[in-house]
Structure formats: C-alpha cells, structure tokens
Sequence to fold (283 residues):
Amino acid sequence: MKMSKKRISIVVIALVVIIWNATVYYVDMELEKRSYENVYNSCHKIWTSRGLYNSHDERNSITSFQRAFDHGATGAEVDFSYDVKMHRFIVGHGHPKPDADGNLVYPKKDGQLLTLEVLFETVGDGHYFWLDYKNLGQLTAEESDEAIVRLQQISQKGELDEHLYIEGSNPLKLSRYTEAGFKTILGIHPLPEEHLLSGITRSAYKLAYYFSNTTAMAMPYAKHGKAIYGNTGRDDFGLIPVFLFHVADEEELLLKLVQQQEVRVILAGRDISIDRFEINSCQ
Fold:
C-alpha cells in the first residue's frame, strides 16, 4: 500500500530531526575532546576596541592604539579590509566607496592611509590583535590566497603571527586562513537566549565552527538588554573559547566574565572609547 504524502512528509521530517540531533551530539562530543591551549588565555582579558580615542576620526589610528597600550591594554580589536588593487590591508571601519577611477577611498588616519603593516611595525611588539576582517566575504578564492600570502609576509616579525586573531563571519573563507596557520575567530550573532529558536541557531553556529576548524568564536554578550551569552548560551557553547563584544560597562559584570575560563577576550561598551584594563582575573 502506498504511503500518503502526509505520512511521507512526517517520515522525512523525523529523519531530518534525527540526523540533525545526531550530528549536533557528535560535534558536541568532539568539541569536548579538542585542545584549546593555543588560544589566548591571559588574566588580562579586557582589550581595547579601536583604541582610546578623543574623536570619531581618531578611531583605529596609531595614536588611539598607542594610547590604549600605554594605559595597560594587552590587545586591540582592529577593523580592516584587504584592497585587491593595492595588495594592502587598510585599517578602518565601514565600507569604502570607489572614486571616478574605480579606486576605493578610505578614511585617513593621522593624515595618511594606515596599513596593517605600519600598525604592526609601530605598535605590534608584545601586543595582541583581534582583526575584524570587513570584506572577507567579498573576496574571490584567488584574492583570498593573495591576501593570505601578504598577511604571512607582514606578520613574520617576532611572535606577531601567534598574536593575531582573524575574525570573519564566512566560515568557508575563514577556514582558508586557519589552514594557512593563522588563528581565526568565527563571528556570530546568535538569537537572544529567550528566543524560541535560539537553541537551533547556537547549534548551527557550533557546526560551522567545528567543520571549519576555527580557533574561537566572537559574539555580542547581549542584544537590546537580552542575554546571548548568559547561562544558557554558555552551557550550549561549552568549552569553545569566546571573544565577547558589546559587553555592558558594568564593573560587577566585567568582574564575573573575566573569571570564566571560556571567555578569553572582552570588549567593554559599544562604540565608545573606554579604559577598563585594570579589571582582570590575575591573582
């Protein structure tokens, strides 16, 4: 006797649910076995976002980063893009627009274009960098390979290559950097914990993280006051090293987060110049 379309649909849905849950269970087991010893794990977890700046234009500049490091920051989150025509990594936030000749126009820092190469040469020694790759997803495979070679060339000094964490939201393209030997961060935006589908989105991100062999995850701590990496999120992500941003500038919260083993880096506040580097988990 032939099965009805309704029964076939039920069977298909049941198989999908079984396969999905089995895959998530397998990935959870594998992630528990993974070693995370090579991920940044200092007691100084609060880094600077775009440096300590006195104006909008001063963000992501040598001046702002040097000021943050002088105030005790161990690492910095830096916005950048790879320019395929110049074969250079340009520091800056936002999306540059092309001029009449098709060349992208970037905001100047301290009167000139700031490249990652100059940034590393000037303030790179002994510091860590969370590199927010703004146009990773827009590059072709060939352009990505060129960018990787260029990044390898400018990060050979001292231990700098071990101090770089490259963030992107495209796991397939980000994995090319992992395979090239760089430490990588999968940037994600899970739904708030109270959302009905939040568990599914967290599981999907875990699968992307596992199969792309990414080093760590980056996510906002909360959105519109609703927890994303609260108790439930922390339990679901387990031992995965997490870089948190948009963390409320509340001393009690920051003191709690710096004590959590899985939390490796914290950016306090949002779109503000802020110094909370004295808050740490050092004994």
